[in-house]
Amino acid sequence: MEKRTLAYWQDKAATLSIEGRAFIDGASRDAYSGRTFDCVSPIDGRVLASVADCGAADVDAAVAAARRSFEQGVWAGRNPRERKAVLLRWAALMREHLDELALLETLDAGKPIGDTTTVDVPGAAYCVEWFAEAIDKVGGEVVPADHHLVGLVTREPIGVVAAVVPWNFPILMASWKFGPALAAGNSVVLKPSEKSPLTAIRVAQLAHEAGIPAGVFNVLPGGGEPGKLLALHRDVDCLAFTGSTNVGKQIMQYAGQSNLKRVWLELGGKSPNIVLPDCPDLDRAAKAAAGAIFYNMGEMCTAGSRLLVHRDIKDVFLAKLLEAAKAYKPGNPLDPDVSMGAIVDKLQLERVLGYIEAGRKDSTLLLGGERVNASSGGFYVEPTVFDTRHDARIAREEIFGPVLSVITFDTIDEAVRVANDSDYGLAAAVWTANLTHAHEISRRLRAGTVWVNCYDEGGDMNFPFGGFKESGNGRDKSLHALEKYTELKSTLVRLR
Ligand code: NAD
């Protein structure tokens, strides 16, 4: 096999044909208005493609196609085994097109090609496979009832599911919605982020090729407008959202203003990573702490953006952390040796740099703090570490960039109080060799996922993923995710 070098991927990128049209009712289409927007690569600022800028007419067409396909039962009415077979074909096509999809994702979102080829695209295929494999195995219940009754409790597809997703893991986050939603028999309208629409558009074409019927899976690229219109649409039964807490709050309101569609939210985070003095392996913990905030340029909802370190080990631990941070050197994400790519766009770059400026005013900069490689035309920021207090702005607000706030504590109670003193509750971690402390602290942490002596473990589908508090409701991944895309029905059959 040809060695995958920077030049290899640059050559591939130069000849890549990029689809920018929406996918509605089984066909690639321009926006009805004819409007497009430029899809810009954060690697070098180059325009990759003109992408359909969908508006009201496109939303209506996609929702109507989804409704029609749902009512006709061309998907929902199929034996789950048949849906499974089609979904497995689709996943296989994603794997066949792995290089193409990974390249699109890297060009579009600035993510390292070493990650998109091993995490994002295989992860999306795996998600589809997992729910495909599950769907012909989960059944309903026959419940205890009066002797003259047969009582059934079943789950039915909810109908038309709209999925509105962010740009940090474009295809992976989308798959966490469309995998379970389609497996359960729904028809789906996916609205990718305007910052990273390309893989969603391409996988829709592959879905069609795999045999997903027209109207069952639609993709509407565009900005907030089509997202809002979907959330307000009276013929959308469920809106599954991953994105910022602010937009999530608006989406709940849109649902209330329209048809009370089911709303599922996976939102922001400011996750604490607590290191106790009896941490069993400080070197591993330091590497994990660096990965927790610098992996994917810190554009992680679960980013361990607050490092809570006990005063007794602070100096030793910080020395190890700063050493571990050297593994993250921003560079061209098409280079397979680069582990830190570009920030997704100029707006996000400015947001991150704005927080770094705020940090310089009230905190001590320990590492980084600068934009780099600006001559490339791309958007790169160094891994940045501040020693700060838990009430500093950089330690409270989600930055969604490679900026770590280190907070010192003296007691376990203080660590737990600081960890929980956040509007968010997505994830948390604790490092300790004491089993009792590990369990007690895990119970006290108000977060949807708690890692003990690790961070960001759990790449398989079995763990439900989602947040407490303003990090959202509902869960992606695991069989619990199917609950979001189904309605429960009680059927009571009187025998006499
Ligand atoms: P965002 O909220 O700005 O956008 C998310 C999506 O919503 C995009 O597709 C966008 O076009 C759309 N949108 C924007 N305005 C809208 C409106 N008024 N109505 C409907 N849709 C609208 O978020 P982002 O910047 O794309 O992503 C970053 C955020 O996502 C961070 O807060 C991050 O923590 C969160 N996130 C959460 C998870 C999770 O699973 N909890 C995973 C990844 C990212």
UniProtKB/TrEMBL annotation:
Enzyme class: oxidoreductase
Domain Aldehyde dehydrogenase: 33-490
GO molecular function: aldehyde dehydrogenase [NAD(P)+] activity
Matches recorded under Pfam families: Aldedh
Active site: E266
PROSITE patterns linked: ALDEHYDE_DEHYDR_CYS, ALDEHYDE_DEHYDR_GLU
Matches recorded under PANTHER family: ALDEHYDE DEHYDROGENASE-RELATED
Protein name (record): NADP/NAD-dependent aldehyde dehydrogenase PuuC
Record organism: Paraburkholderia caffeinitolerans
Gene behind the chain: puuC_4
